[in-house]
Amino acid sequence: MIEIQEDLSIPEDEVTFAFSRSGGPGGQNVNKVSTRATLYFDVRNSPSLSEERKTLIMERLAGRIDKEGVLRVVSQRYRTQGENREETVRRFAELLRGALEIKRARKKTRTPFSAHRERLEKKKKRSEVKRARGKVTGEE
For a tag on the chain, would you pick the N or C end, based on fewer CB atoms within 10 A? Predict the structure, then answer.
């Protein structure tokens, strides 16, 4: 089971993995061993998710989900298949957690009257200082 939230866990049989050759450093190992891990999760047809959660995930992770409703997470950071597989599961859980997070509405606040008055007084004072810098008129 992949733990997403306290009330949500996704069984591992709902995700599939594919492995391919990874790019980057690693010498001959890169050319021979398939260490890059790709996790696929069918959001649209998942029995573990409610319709509300599916909608939230589809909206918030739209850039990562294809037309069929499949979420794809890739990792090629490590040199072993096992570590990359664990990394994709960790990132997958993190992505779903972020997508399902309920964002609180911003509470509108007003600027205190004293702060408003103080700002205007500072502006007047500054404008006086600048005005006083004008050209000197008259004889010395």
Answer: C
Tens of pLDDT along 60-107? 877 888 887 788 888 877 777 788 788 888 888 888 878 778 888 888
Cβ burial 2-26 (10 Å sphere, 16+ → b, else e): bebeeebebeeebbeeeeeebeeeb
**Residue 13, CA distances (Å) to 26, 32, 81, 124, 129 in order:** 31, 28, 18, 69, 73
Reduced to 3 states, what is the DSSP secondary structure of residue 4? Answer: strand
Evaluated on CA atoms 75, 79, 80, 81, the torsion sign reads positive
Residues pairing with 81 in the sheet: none
